[in-house]
Amino acid sequence: MVGNVMVRRTVAALLAAGAVTAGSTTAASAAANSGSWRADLSAVDSDGVNVASAGSAITLRNSGWRPAAQNEGSEGYLVSAERQLSSPVNRVQAQISADTPAGTSVEVDVRGRSGSADWTEWVPAGTALTRPVTVVQTRIILSGNGTNARPTVRDVELNGTLGPQARALTASAPLTYTVYATREGLTGGTTANGHVIAANDHFVALPSGKALSPRGTGNYSVRVCKTDNSRCEYAPVWDVGPWNTKDDYWNPSSVRSEYRDLPQGQPEAYAAYHNGYNGGRDDLGYQVGNPAGIDLADGTFSSGVGLGDNGNVKVTYLWTGSSAASGLVQTAGDPVNVRSGAHTSAAAVGLAANYAKVNIECYVNGDSVTGKFGTSTIWDRIGPGNYVSDTYVQTGSDSPVAPLC
Questions:
Q1: Residue 304 phi, psi (nearest 5)
Q2: What are phi and psi of 116, to 5 degrees?
Q3: Domains 175-320 and 326-394 share a fold
Q4: pLDDT tens digit sequence for 104-161
Q5: What residue ranges do the domains of the chain occupy?
Q6: Residue 56 class from Cβ within 10 Å (0-12 exposed, 13-18 middle, 19+ buried)?
Q7: Which of 150, 176, 254, 367 has the fewest CB atoms within 10 Å around its CB?
Q8: CATH ID of 11-161, from 3.30.70, 2.60.120, 3.80.20, 1.10.8
Q9: Half-sphere CA count of 375, side-chain side, radius 13 A
Q10: Secondary structure of the chain in the HEC alphabet?
Q11: Around Cβ 113, how many Cβ atoms within 10 Å?
């Protein structure tokens, strides 16, 4: 954030459930086994952030590195390849073998999906997913203490089970809340998912690792609008902050990680700043200096939403809805204009950032446009009065994927 003193924390340091701390190992088992498998630790690909292979193990590549928004400790993580399961599961247990010197830890998060459905949010291994899934990914998070001490993960054995705890939380329409937004800044720094922040960048940060998209993806994206809905940007979630790091305030209390006594949709920072909740402090004891529930990259803040100062915005958490059709915005790098109609002359009412995943409500035929995916007259309506050319949206089809508006 620019203009106020703000401290944001590492995802790993605060997703405590399921963590391996100094010298320990976690293990669990359950009935209705869908098979066991081991995480592949033999190679680190582009989904890895500050991790390095150490033989058949992984460790922090740089024991002192941390995301630009983190002021203490160090961090790295590895996202596994997708694992196709033979039968549905709603819980994945992890048994971790790791060397964890004092002040370091290892954690495993899990998410899942079935077919073409969206991913669930990331949850600590051993926690029930919100619905049964047949495809699973893991996120192995390594935390250091900022010194030469670093954890080393030697083996992660995973075990999927299906039990009665699964419950569908997704509604037909994605959740929308009005929250206070701040500008992130930090150009040249690196976000929690490994993205190097550029000038006039387009992404957002939310105060929970549950909705952190891996680098170069928009699995978790938001629509951020002025409170009068006159201008919006669709942007991926690529960082964690601005205050807490496990405050998934958009979720109901039944699955919210912390602060379950607060109303759904109210960030802990709001309650701390306005009402002295938690002694006016965030989850690591830092005094909350503003009520922010979202951080906006510079481009999203100014040219996307059109804000001149920190203030309230309407945020729609796009992955929380059960959209029948969706697509990934793909451009040469810059965002694409969102227009009020299916014409290149229609008023520009916002932007859709590269890698943002958008819900396609319906389509109309309009002006012919040549874009990333060829030439077409199809325009997708991605929100109320918000249209983009289908040639910038990767849908997997040259034909419409939603009904005619």
A1: -80, -65
A2: -95, 5
A3: no
A4: 999 999 999 998 788 999 999 999 998 999 999 999 999 998 888 999 999 999 999 9
A5: 11-161, 175-320, 326-394
A6: exposed
A7: 254
A8: 2.60.120
A9: 3
A10: CCCCCCCECCHHHHCCCCCECCCCCCCCCCCCEEEEEECCCCCCCCCCECEEEECCEEEECCCCCCCCCECCCEEEEEECCCEEEEEEECEEEEEEEEECCCCCEEEEEEEEECCCCCCCCCEECCCCCCCCEEEEEEEEEEEECCCCCCCEEEEEEEEEECCCCCCCCCECCCEEEEEEEEECCCCCCECCCCCECCCCCCCEEECEHHHCCCCCCCCCEEEEECCCCCCEEEEEEEEECCCCCECCCCCCCCCCCCCCCCCCCCCHHHHHHHHCHHHHECCCCCECCCCEEEEECHHHHHHHCCCCCCEEEEEEEHHHECCCCEEEECCCCCCEEEECCCCCCCCEEEEECCCCEEECCEEEEEEEEEECCEEEEEEEEEECCEEEEHHHEECCCCCCCCCEC
A11: 18
Which residue has 């690909």 as its token pair?
45
Q: How many Å apart are CA 389 and CA 226, to the nearest integer?
A: 23
Report the chain's C-alpha Rg in angstroms.
21
Q: pLDDT for 254-310, tens place per residue?
A: 999 999 999 999 999 999 999 999 999 998 788 999 999 999 999 999 999 999 999
What is the model's pTM? 0.90
Place of tokens 């699955």: 255
Tokens 């249209």 belong to residue: 387
β-pair partners for 97: 155
* CATH-assigned architecture of domain 326-394: Roll (2.30)
* Integer Cα distance of 380 and 363 in angstroms: 5
Q: Which amino acid is at 172?
A: S
